[in-house]
Amino acid sequence: INTVNLSKVFRTDEIETLALNSVNLKINKGEFVAIMGPSGCGKSTLMNILGLLDNPSEGQYTFDNTEVAGLKEGQRTDLRKGNIGFVFQSFNLIDELNVFENVEMPLVYQRISSKTRKEMVNKVLERMNMSHRAKHYPQQLSGGQQQRVAIARAVVSNPGLILADEPTGNLDSKNGQEVMELLTELNREGTTIIMVTHSIQDAGYAHRIINLFDGKVVMEESLVGEHSL
Ligand code: ADP
Ligand code: ADP
Distance from the CA of 190 to the center of ligand 2, in angstroms? Predict the structure, then answer.
């Protein structure tokens, strides 16, 4: 991931908001990066652009050797499929679908055959220790279990990149720690992780912290080395 002078302006009525102001970022494959900063500093806007959900107003964004800043929505969607998994603070599971069906959803969009889907979903549910809840509905699960299902959904198609927006924000410390350990494990296997967090403790799992303020990168701290203690 490489951004050059990435900016995002939102215009509503007479008001113009510069949500991102010339952001330059390089994130290598296999990195685990935490993004921190006060409410309104542009974290979600940045995640939406990095995750190919939205385009910047100005600047360049190279994703896996492809210039993506000017892509149309359909092209962005195609590029996201199988390459990027999303994890949210509020889990964002579909209440009407059971655990198996929630995790299966990205594979349905990728037009993967039903037999292969079944294998892939069962494998990832096993890994997340959720096989015994495959037929349950989200509302029948604890917050920690729901987030494990959401992570299963994010990783079921083996994406190279996971974007996690405050993944522990709605969890108690025990479940939060479990989620962080899952993300760390996925990162150790080579998945790039970009995570927004307000928690210093969670940021400690990352290799690097990027601090945003008023849409600008104001500080980067490398944590590499501390883990090897
Ligand atoms: P954070 O995630 O750090 O809280 P955001 O990226 O959500 O910050 O927002 C950055 C700034 O952009 C804020 O001032 C916010 O009000 C503004 N903003 C975000 N999304 C929109 C939008 N869709 N329309 C107008 N303004 C927006
Ligand atoms: P490969 O090496 O075969 O591309 P990976 O599992 O390493 O497979 O990555 C899968 C996809 O994830 C890549 O094709 C790329 O689109 C995306 N990706 C992951 N991390 C990055 C990154 N730091 N910069 C750009 N793209 C990335």
Answer: 9
What are the CA-CA distances from residue 88 to residues 179, 212, 215 (Å)?
12, 19, 21
Predicted TM-score (pTM) of this structure: 0.87
Burial pattern 8-20, b for ≥16 Cβ within 10 A else e, equals beeeeeeeeeebb
What residues have CB less than 8 Å from 184, skipping those under 6 apart? 32, 205
* Tens-place pLDDT, residues 65-118: 999 999 999 999 999 999 999 999 999 999 999 999 999 999 999 999 999 999
- Give CA–CA dist 66/141, Å, rounded: 40
User: ipTM strictly over 0.90?
Assistant: no
Number of C-beta neighbours around residue 159 at 10 A: 20
Give the amino acid at 173: S
In the Cβ-directed half-sphere of 98, how many Cα atoms lie within 13 Å?
10
Place of tokens 């962080």: 180
Question: Are the C-beta atoms of residues 207 and 221 closer than 8 Å to each other?
Answer: no
Q: How far is the CA of 160 from the centre of ligand 2 (A)?
A: 4
Ligand 1, pocket residues at CB < 6 Å? 10, 12, 17, 19, 37, 39-45
Distance 67 CA to ligand 2 centre (A): 14
Report the distance separating Cα 171 and Cα 101, nearest Å. 23
Q: What's the token pair of residue 167? A: 């993944």
